[in-house]
């Protein structure tokens, strides 16, 4: 693979820009925003070009999610047929989740999800001629879905927050410290999907509201600003909720 | 070149080959996947792109993406005249978008005319392109456009205002595609819509050469706008 410019990595590229010239024996995985045209790799989206080993992709700030194999996503069930759940994952079409794609599920004993319930799953196939397929199976886990200890599966209670894809990406990459910082003060559960959705659950409705608001705010703040805001809000919260007051008195 | 130093000059003091100043706001609309407001002089267009959407019925093509362009006038309903323009724009955008990448889907491009002061078609193509880029729809190239107005005495004028358009005896909307900065635009005429007749071959070819240069300027503008918008988006992620 021959780069066509002096430095083609971490530069801003535009649709139609030729990125690399392919040579015999190249083994390259192309991702979002890159397209093979003849013997060239060409960008089809505007964004920053990234290259990691033999992977090449363009990172775009876009609102709509495009399913990609291996992504973890949060979906909402929209329909149920005899073999599949149809799940809205924010892509251009709904995704299919087989009824039995849960850890330890059998025909007799399987989770019954209703329309409107949230599910945490991973994308297993994104064929261009069919709907994307999801799965809640994770090879190597010991738990059955019944125990509720599996990583993937239905998300009960809690609140689903819609946000931008770049925020989700930054949280998953660890660039955004909202969860690590909040974890110092309150107990909560979270699931972040690559499709611009974050699910949170905590001990009380007040805590969930606090979490959801902080998440949305965190997008346009630096980590220092965020930490200050979290400390401020949590201290106000502890002054009002009884459980927190109990904890505070016990501490004394 | 006798066309350049016209004795009368233009109403707004431009030279015949000069285009008006551009202003653009990317991400102008909250709900659309991609949007922009483009001002080309006094001509103002708001473009919104929704997509990829799930295609249903006649919009579902088994091998490629369906592109739907709708033009909304400042007031009243979409007239037959605008319907025709929609078809012309559809041709340009079908060629531009990499439609084969996402079959059975639909991309809707909505163009709201806010104010028309000449070169409306060009403004709509440029605005549509910017909205496509901001939505992250995969494209083969960047499409740019420029209007040329032909007149008897002064040759031609680039990017005419409404009055100049009415005075001219022919108008051409030229669209060029750009693939990379060093691409040769002489090969890349992707759209040419003519109204009226041009009497001189000389003037015709000259006008194409000048409009190509104007399109190159538009291309540089689009690059600048898009790069800036994403730099802001990613800015906070830097440690």
TrEMBL record, chain A:
GO terms for biological process: CUT catabolic process; exonucleolytic trimming to generate mature 3'-end of 5.8S rRNA from tricistronic rRNA transcript (SSU-rRNA, 5.8S rRNA, LSU-rRNA); nuclear polyadenylation-dependent rRNA catabolic process; poly(A)-dependent snoRNA 3'-end processing; TRAMP-dependent tRNA surveillance pathway; U4 snRNA 3'-end processing. It is found in: Nucleus. Coiled coil: none annotated. GO terms for molecular function: RNA binding. Keywords: Exosome, RNA-binding. It comes from the Eukaryota. The keyword Glycoprotein does not apply. Residues 68-137 form the S1 motif domain. GO terms for cellular component: cytoplasmic exosome (RNase complex); nuclear exosome (RNase complex). Gene3D superfamilies: K Homology domain, type 1 (3.30.1370.10), Nucleic acid-binding proteins (2.40.50.140). CDD domains: KH-I_Rrp40. Signal peptide: none annotated. PANTHER family: EXOSOME COMPLEX COMPONENT RRP40 (PTHR21321:SF1), PNAS-3 RELATED (PTHR21321). This is S1 motif domain-containing protein. It comes from Galdieria yellowstonensis.
Automatic annotation (TrEMBL), chain B:
One of its GO terms (biological process) is U4 snRNA 3'-end processing. InterPro entries: ExoRNase_PH_dom1 (IPR001247), ExoRNase_PH_dom2_sf (IPR036345), PNPase/RNase_PH_dom_sf (IPR027408), Ribosomal_Su5_D2-typ_SF (IPR020568), RNase_PH (IPR050080). GO terms for cellular component: cytoplasmic exosome (RNase complex); nuclear exosome (RNase complex); nucleolus. Keywords: Exosome, Nucleus, rRNA processing. Residues 18-138 form the Exoribonuclease phosphorolytic domain. One of its GO terms (molecular function) is RNA binding. It is found in: Nucleus. The keyword rRNA processing applies. Pfam families: RNase_PH (PF01138). The keyword Amino-acid biosynthesis does not apply. Belongs to the RNase PH family. This is Exoribonuclease phosphorolytic domain-containing protein. It comes from Galdieria yellowstonensis.
């Amino acid at each position: 693979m021959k780069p066509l410019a002096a430095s083609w990595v971490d530069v801003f590229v535009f649709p139609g820009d030729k990125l690399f010239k392919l040579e015999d024996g190249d083994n390259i995985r192309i991702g979002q925003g890159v397209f093979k045209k003849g013997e060239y790799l060409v960008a089809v989206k505007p964004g920053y070009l990234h290259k990691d080993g033999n992977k090449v992709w363009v990172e775009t700030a876009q609102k709509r999610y495009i399913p990609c194999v291996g992504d973890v996503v949060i979906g909402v069930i929209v329909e149920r047929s005899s073999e599949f759940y149809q799940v809205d994952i924010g892509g251009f079409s709904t995704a299919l989740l087989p009824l039995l794609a849960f850890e330890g599920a059998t025909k007799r004993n399987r989770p019954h999800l209703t329309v409107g319930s949230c599910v945490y799953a991973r994308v297993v196939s994104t064929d261009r001629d069919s709907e994307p397929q999801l799965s809640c199976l994770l090879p190597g886990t010991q738990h059955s879905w019944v125990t509720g200890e599996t990583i993937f599966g239905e998300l009960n209670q809690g609140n689903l927050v819609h946000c931008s894809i770049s925020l989700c990406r930054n949280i998953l990459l660890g660039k955004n410290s909202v969860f690590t910082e909040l974890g110092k003060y309150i107990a909560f559960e979270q699931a972040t999907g690559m499709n611009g959705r974050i699910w949170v659950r905590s001990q009380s409705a007040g805590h969930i509201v606090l979490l959801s608001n902080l998440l949305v705010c965190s997008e346009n703040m630096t980590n220092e600003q965020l930490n200050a805001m979290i400390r401020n809000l949590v201290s106000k919260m502890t002054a009002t909720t009884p459980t927190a007051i109990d904890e505070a008195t016990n501490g004394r | 070149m006798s066309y350049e130093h016209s004795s009368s000059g233009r109403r707004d003091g431009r030279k015949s080959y000069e285009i008006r100043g551009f202003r653009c706001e990317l991400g102008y609309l909250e709900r659309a996947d991609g949007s922009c407001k483009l001002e080309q002089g006094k001509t103002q267009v708001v473009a919104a792109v929704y997509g990829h959407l799930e295609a249903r019925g006649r919009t579902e093509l088994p091998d490629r993406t369906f592109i739907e362009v709708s033009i909304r006038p400042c007031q009243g309903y979409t007239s037959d005249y605008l319907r025709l323009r929609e078809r012309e724009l559809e041709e340009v955008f079908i060629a531009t978008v990499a439609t084969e990448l996402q079959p059975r889907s639909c991309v809707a491009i909505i163009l709201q005319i806010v104010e028309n002061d000449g070169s409306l078609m060009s403004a709509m193509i440029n605005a549509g392109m910017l909205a496509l880029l901001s939505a992250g729809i995969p494209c083969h190239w960047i499409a740019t456009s420029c209007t040329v107005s032909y007149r008897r005495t002064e040759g031609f004028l680039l990017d005419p205002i409404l009055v100049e358009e009415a005075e001219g005896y022919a108008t051409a909307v030229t669209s060029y595609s750009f693939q990379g900065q060093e691409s040769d635009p002489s090969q890349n005429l992707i759209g040419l819509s003519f109204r009226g007749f041009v009497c001189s071959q000389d003037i015709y070819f000259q006008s194409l050469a000048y409009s190509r240069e104007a399109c190159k300027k538009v291309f540089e503008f689009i690059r600048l706008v898009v790069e800036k918008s994403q730099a802001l988006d990613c800015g906070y992620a830097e440690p």
